[in-house]
Amino acid sequence: MTDILTKSVSKDGKFRVYIVNATETIQEAQKRHDTWRNSSAALGRTMIGSILVATSTLKEDEVLTTRVQGDGPVGAIVVDADAQGNTKGYITNPHISLKAREDGHIDVKAAVGTKGTLSITKDLHLKEPFTGQVPLVSGEIGMDFAYYMAKSEQIPSAIGVSVFVQPNEQVGAAGGFLVQTLPGATDKDISKIEDNLKIIPNLSTLLNEGLSNEDILNKVMNGVEMKVLQEMPIQFHCDCSKERFSKSLATLETKEIQAMIDEDHGAEAVCKFCGNKYQFSEDDLKQIIAQKG
Ligand SMILES: [Zn+2]
């Protein structure tokens, strides 16, 4: 089983709707970073939001980076996502576990903070990357992404992102939805969807109950005829390699690399995004110096 994102449009052309089951993707992130519940939810929700924005606004080979910087204890959250459904991310403080809210849910707002920014930088292969930044409006992440879509992309959207963490800290289910209002949708059309969204449980609850993306789509868009356009896999994917780290080591001054040889007899590079470790022996480092010329 792999995670699937379902792209659909209403038959009347008034709404574009994406539903994503990201359970395995967020499970992988949780394992790689050993995140605790509030950090898992904050990082997971940011990854799901980034996947929804990337797959709905980027072209084939474009990539975006989301940065959520709030004043809460988790610190910064940084996530990459692309149009192909690949995502990776990290959080400054993975070990945040706070008291649950009164309704039993993870208090994401308390972990992320309510003062700060959400910014998305897109590498569109132009000279300058494009960055859109909005202040945090909620700290719960979903509404913050929706605010970004309305302000920076000028696409009115409803976004839901949801991560269910089991008592043993493993991620039980994770997913999200994006509903975009297209020109032609009337206030009456929109309020019908808003009414649907008011009564449906969290996505992770629905996924936990075994509902498929299409089942969820029919709940979100109850009363509206929908057409599925595409189903695409999404996954945690990091493109780091020893070669990439060699290149970044090569940007250091020769004396700094020499110090690694003399003092540490080698070096270890750790990828922030996925936690993979790369060992550089004294010979590796000498070669890097030699190639600097
Ligand atoms: Zn990596």
Global outline:
globular
Question: Unreliable runs, pLDDT <50, ≥5 residues?
Answer: none
Largest sheet: 10 strands, mixed
The average pLDDT is 96
Distinct helical segment count? 10
- The counted number of beta strands is 12
Task: Please state the structural category.
Answer: alpha+beta
Radius of gyration: 21 Å
Bound molecules: zinc ion
| Helicity level | 25-40%
**Biggest sheet, spatial arrangement of strands:** 7-6-3-4-5-10-1-2-9-8
CATH architecture classification of the largest domain: 3-Layer(bab) Sandwich
Question: What is the H-and-E element order?
Answer: EEHHEEEHEEHEEHHHEHHEEH
Approximate strand percentage:
25-35%
End-to-end separation in angstroms reads: 49 Å
- Counted up, domains total 2
CATH topology of the largest domain: Hsp33 domain
CATH homology group of the largest domain: Hsp33 domain
CATH class (first level) name of the largest domain: Alpha Beta
Q: How would the blueprint of this fold be written?
A:
Blueprint: E1 3-10, E2 15-21, H1 23-33, H2 37-57, E3 63-70, E4 76-82, E5 86-91, H3 108-112, E6 116-123, E7 130-135, H4 142-152, E8 157-165, E9 171-181, H5 187-199, H6 203-208, H7 213-220, E10 226-236, H8 242-250, H9 254-264, E11 267-270, E12 277-280, H10 282-292
Parallel strand pairs: 5-10
Antiparallel strand pairs: 1-2, 1-10, 2-9, 3-4, 3-6, 4-5, 6-7, 8-9, 11-12
Written overview of the protein:
With 293 residues, the chain is an alpha+beta fold. It folds into 2 domains: 3-236, Hsp33 domain (3-Layer(bab) Sandwich); 242-292, CBS domain Like (Alpha-Beta Complex). The protein contains 10 helices and 12 strands. The chain has helices at 23-33, 37-57, 108-112, 142-152, 187-199, 203-208, 213-220, 242-250, 254-264, 282-292; strands spanning 3-10, 15-21, 63-70, 76-82, 86-91, 116-123, 130-135, 157-165, 171-181, 226-236, 267-270, 277-280. The strands form 2 sheets. A 10-stranded mixed sheet has the order 7-6-3-4-5-10-1-2-9-8, sandwiched between helices. It has a two-stranded antiparallel sheet with strand order 11-12. A hairpin with a 5-residue loop joins strand 3 and strand 4. Helix 8 (242-250) packs across helix 10 (282-292) and helix 9 packs antiparallel against helix 10. The longest helix is centred in the N-terminal third of the chain and has 21 residues, at 37-57. It is globular, with a radius of gyration of 21 Å. The chain starts with a strand and ends with a helix. The model has no long low-confidence stretch (mean pLDDT 96). Bound molecules: zinc ion. Residues 238, 240, 271, 273-274, 276 line the site of zinc ion.
